[in-house]
Design brief:
Shape: elongated
Largest sheet: 6 strands, mixed
Radius of gyration: 46 Å
Order of helices and strands: EEEEEHEEHEEEHEHHEEEHHEEHEHEEHH
Oligomer: single chain
CATH architecture of one domain: 2-Layer Sandwich
Helix content: 25-40%
Strand order of the largest sheet: 11-6-1-2-3-19
């Protein structure tokens, strides 16, 4: 059965590209409806796409596989953007008012727009994290409604190289996939793995990826600092190739025997533990983990240094949270504690939301956290809307008309011959009270004729009477 409501997201990481589709339920849980992934090491380096053709091909494949599982086409997807050049840049914008007044929404918006005009060389602003606003001499998280004569807005702009954004957008465009929203991956990851209490009390989130390590610092629910280091799990695997082995074998050795704080334990025979390479050679685990531990310590030290540079290392009351695939290296937490002298260190192996579906693919090892964070951050339906079905033709269409009218129009096929509308009883041409042929003053001529005729008749009668009268009298006599 086709699913017509879902959110789709794609993450292009340095080791793999992954796509996911699912929906959010009212109780906050996630239901994963489709999942697909491919290797991305041939076209993504340090989080940035460098081969657009290969990236477009992979994106197209991922979307096609998702559509097969959904049994429906995808209209758009949310894309995560991250990479080595991603970082925050602080900026301030001030405004002096003519007289003391109330700070309005419009004024705050104007400050935000002005902040985005920050001149940057070969960089672009991807997002903005407003900090506190200083009104006169007081700091406010929400300045609207406060009175004052001056206001200064402090902002952390999340910036990256133009090429990072441009190459990503061109890859999706060439794949013929519409981007519903370009989400900054670290900003989507943080709320998915950190609790509200941790973000309010102050904590650092360290995402240990394959080719990069991302450090974020939060305090009072506000992003205070973000930086991406060009170091990750791949560096450890690459170092192990010094044992004269292929990088794929080195990655396997790291996952099977690697330890960030390895301690030599001799077995019962008194010989140190060792492992066999594919070519039959034996390598001591101590020798192997000297390489692993040295690079892991470098990565952890650089991450802690970035937290110190943020200026909040003494205000992280919730400590440090580790996540990402490289956080699975044994004793990573212990190594970070020893380097930072911070007791509160935990590993977020999965997101906070309850997730159902694709349990075998969405393993609790920190590798899927960013992808699931993008899914949680999505808001729009990504399903292709179904085309409205044409309205059924009127029954008259079956009466033998070859080209029925597009819409039932009561004029064309003539319905039963309706008695021609009696010329709408046009009020009988209101024989407009034709000025009563004003009782045509019966032409006086007529009256005269009648009078003369009557007079003539009377005269005739008189003469007749006289004549007859004389006769009758003579006869009587």
């Amino acid at each position: 059965m086709a699913t017509t409501e879902f959110i789709a997201a794609i993450e292009l990481g340095s080791s793999r590209i992954a796509g996911i589709a699912g929906r959010k339920h009212a109780d906050g849980s996630l239901e994963v409806l489709a999942y697909a992934r491919e290797d991305s090491s041939t076209f993504v380096r340090k989080g940035q796409v460098y081969n657009i053709d290969k990236a477009a091909h992979a994106i197209h494949n991922i979307v096609s596989r998702l559509e097969e599982q959904l049994h429906h086409s995808i209209a758009q997807v949310y894309a995560g953007i991250g990479g080595q050049s991603l970082r925050t840049a602080e900026n301030q914008v001030s405004r002096l008012l003519d007289e003391e007044g109330i700070i309005s929404d419009e004024l705050v918006d104007e400050l935000c727009y002005e902040n985005r005009d920050l001149p940057l060389s070969d960089m672009c602003v991807l997002d903005v994290a407003p900090q506190e606003y200083k009104i006169d001499n007081t700091l406010h998280a929400d300045p609207v409604g406060v009175t004052g004569r001056s206001i200064t807005g402090r902002y952390q702009n999340i910036i990256a190289r133009h090429a990072l954004k441009k190459n990503l957008e061109q890859s999706f465009e060439k794949a013929g996939v519409k981007i519903a929203g370009l989400l900054v991956s670290p900003l989507a990851l943080a709320p998915a793995v950190l609790t509200e209490n941790e973000m309010r009390a102050g904590c650092a989130l360290v995402d240990l990826g394959a080719a990069t390590t991302t450090v974020q610092v939060y305090k009072n629910n506000i992003l205070r600092y973000l930086c991406v280091l060009p170091l990750g799990g791949n560096n450890i695997s690459h170092d192990l190739t010094g044992l004269k082995i292929e990088e794929t074998e080195a990655e396997d050795l790291k996952l099977r025997y690697g330890d960030a704080l390895y301690k030599e334990d001799e077995n019962d025979s008194g010989a140190p533990a060792s492992c066999l390479l594919n070519d039959g050679r034996a390598v001591k685990l101590g020798e192997l983990n000297d390489i692993v531990g040295a690079r892991a310590e470098e990565i952890m030290s650089n991450a802690w240094n970035q937290i110190q540079l943020s200026g909040y290392e003494n205000e992280l009351f919730s400590g440090v949270v580790l996540t990402g695939g490289n956080a699975n290296l044994p004793n990573t937490e212990a190594l970070f504690r020893s380097l930072s002298h911070t007791d509160k260190v935990r590993t977020a192996a999965f997101v906070q939301e309850v997730v159902s579906g694709y349990d075998d693919d969405l393993t609790h090892d920190g590798r899927q956290n960013t992808l699931l964070g993008l899914l949680v951050a999505g808001t729009e339906n990504c399903c292709t809307p179904e085309k409205p079905q044409p309205a059924p033709q009127p029954t008259q269409a079956s009466l033998g008309f070859d080209n029925p009218a597009p819409a039932p129009q009561p004029a064309e096929p003539k319905p039963e011959p309706q008695p021609e509308p009696e010329p709408a009883p046009q009020p009988e041409p209101k024989k407009e009270p034709q000025p009563k042929p004003e009782p045509e003053p019966k032409p006086t001529t007529t009256k005269k004729k009648k009078r003369w005729w009557q007079m003539g008749k009377d005269l005739f009668d008189d003469l007749k009477n006289e004549a007859l009268g004389d006769t009758s009298d003579s006869l009587k006599n």
